[in-house]
Input
Amino acid sequence: MFDSYLSKKDLWRAFSLKTFVLLFLALVIIQQKAVGQETTSIKDKINELLKGKTSAHFYVGADNYLNGKKVLLDTIFWNAANDTLHLHFNKALAEMPFRENDEENVSRFIREHLPDTLKKIELKIYANKVELHELVPNYYREASDRSEDRLSQCAQQNRTNVVRKKLPFTISSGLTHANIALWNSHGWYYEPSLDRWEWQRARLFTTVEDILPTAFVLGYIAPMLENAGANVFIPRERDWQINEVVVDNNASSGKSKFKKPRGKKFESTGFALRNQLYKNENPFELGTAIKFESTKKGNRATYIPEIPETGEYAVYVSYGKGEGKVKYRVHHSGSVTDFEVDQRMGFGTWIYLGKFHFRKGYDKRGSRVELIVPEGKMLLFSADAVRFGGGVGVVERNGKTGERAKFFEAARYYLQYAGAPDTLVWRLNTNDDYKDDYMSRGEWVNWLMGAPYGPTKNSQHPGLEIPMDMAFAFHTDAGILPGDGIVGTLGIYSTDRDTNVFAGGQSKYASRDLTDLIQTQIVDDINAIYKCRWTRRGMWNAQYSEAYRPQVPAMLLELLSHQNLNDVKYVLHPKFRFDVSRAIYKAMLRFIATQNGYDFIVQPLPVNKLVSEFTTENAVKLSWQPVVDELEPSAAPKKYMVYKRTGNNGFDNGTLVEKTEIVIPNLNKGQVYGFRVTAVNAGGESFPSEIVSVGIAENSKGNVLIVNGFDRVDSPEIFECDSLAGVLRNLDHGVAYHYDISTTGNQYDFDRKSPWLDDDSPGHGASYANLETTVFRGNTFDFSYQHGVSLLANNYSFVTVSDEAVEGNSVNLHKFMLVDLLYGEEKTRVFPGNDSTTHFKIYTSALLNVLEDYTKGGGNLLISGAYIGSEIPKNKDAEKRSGDIFGFKWRTNYAVKNGQFFSTSKAINFDGEFNTAYNLEQYAVEAPDGIEPIDDKGQTILRYAENKVSAGVFYNGNHKVVALGFPFETVKGESERNALMGEILELLSE
Output
């Protein structure tokens, strides 16, 4: 298939070059005619040859490049003085990607077909007013041939971050010093003509563009960039925590308390928390900030919040302009984390530090933020407010708020709350929040920088003095293609608005470089990973507000079409989101490194094959394996960070190790510990591994091995037939990575011919809105915690390993009296694209071999999961082998809708319920299995209350097994899980 595709490309190359040959031969013929023939006539004849041709006809690369814009020759002239033929084409030709050899190859081929007398003439080919070789990004050029005028506006020594987190390792080849403006599409806004708040786009295929890019930006792109050392600025609220606590020198939330520093000098304008809603007011002009001096003994301000609910909260700080760097120390449930903040910039707004776990209540020791200034320098510093959590919307429009968490709302409202000046940034029109929203994002970037890069209406506004490197707008597009067509990826930049240079003199063609790098990386990575022909669309040089307003290199990305089901198959998949986000991060890294003249290294991929094992009475050993990135040789890990969690607190700041193992001593008995690992190199830190839990019982009855087999992330079920197609979440709602923040509700219009009428009636793909205010749990890779708590409550010690480690024979199961197989919603799936490789299979041959050996030796099993029955291969040999090991067989999938179950045997006494609702605490189980005993050595011990189908089986043969057709960790209530585990352990230990 691929070979055939290449041969077609070769044909296109020949056809394309032949077109150019015909074009120039026509010129030769014309040139031989009488002197004085009209130039316009020549142009007409050439354009006749080009009739109907797009830049795709001239593209000779490997990508599936499609572009419908027609190429035209605008002007042509012969420079007799230097024997040069100049041809100026329109923008359409410039929309294709160019590399160093493209123009040379075309010119050489043309000369081969010219008469001998013309073979040495010089050809100058232009598109969009620049020579073709100028369309080659600096990254793809030799260093000596790079365009100096499009390199960074900031000298290397002036590039610095507002915030630097204290780390035990150095990021020397990543994005340290980089400041990146990044935003996620549109948002919830007020529409005055309808007097309602609404999305700016339609709900289609269970999501909406206003929050779909949010899943990329908040879940993947921003953390990747920050893990590489960058400061990321987002003009929308980035924390989906619905609670918000503000601690301020003027007034604070609830019982929260601000302790002022010594040596207060005076007050400047600052933030004010109000009990009433904000209309068009700027909150940072309603209150005060304290200005104070450093002293010989040091000085500090302390912020103590009253946290309404235990959970994860983003921490933001604000301050007036200070005279140097200060330390913000965040005390959270996991540890104490320090940040260096430069108060000479980023003042008068919310500056994001990170997200941390806090416990409910007012705890002046365990939950607080300290602002600590350096000793003895006698400089002035500032203390204003500290904010915990995102909260709900507080901006009122015509008497109404958005009534949703702030992170759903459009940038226009967050920028008001974040102190941006109104008529320069977020109130540019009269009663038109829609326009204000898309215009405000670019102007906000300029406000961050300040003079001479300030907002359009006042470029000399001082702003916040942050040296920004670039801006990036993430969108998805509309459009439908027939058959299996993919709309694909479009890039937009702007060079033509007002002037072709930024305020500092940098060429706006740096934006084209950025656009090309990001589009190229996305398309290349998708094709490599998913074995598909992802569509590369053009690079438009167009006057889109988000592309032309920022006074830094900027790109507007239209990743794919949210209206085209073939694109949707990809965009709903969490792995695709990770892969695309990593491509974007890598492209930004390449761009910024090239702009500033340094070598880069890509941060590693997450580690896998985690193993925890007992070493002594109060110590465990952790080990893991690095993952090779086949697309990025530089992404090799050099060291590792091991993070520790005690009980249900947050994680600590980690321990740096050089080897792929560590011994953790001094563990307290009766306590559940969690560990996760990241890989680090000079480019930054990877995403975290799964979490392995361990616990040592006071008077242990035995050791249990938890095998975490639930590592699936997945899109919802998608189906297609001739007339109907769409997303069937009721069959399989998929598995989000960590949490789902972008689902609106189930699709209800499956008719392919259903037309779009308006956003309230968008036709095919139309979806409900009942879930769009709900953030709910996906796979947090942390469910060994629930199993471990229940084991420890019943006086059993335990450790956790990944299923891949068991399959690789890295674990001796015979050391354990019980193996707890945790399978959650694991089931066999294939990724979108043309790769038929299966993933997330439960019953692999390697696993069955290990379990067969273990059970033949008398080892006992607890296995639970929604698909443990339906995953059994449907052939007699496989069914018999599985039956011999597990003692149950599949009866039905989709056994029930509600989660109630009850005991039916004297062997166990328990009635309970597993979760089927969408919430943060537990993931929903939509398709539990009905399972039955394989033979008379087994018995049904649990049945579903809804229809009395068998839900749990106890097998008592040469070994013992308890099997649950639903995930154990989804049973509601910790005490209920502990009781159920107690019943199971009693059965298995008799």
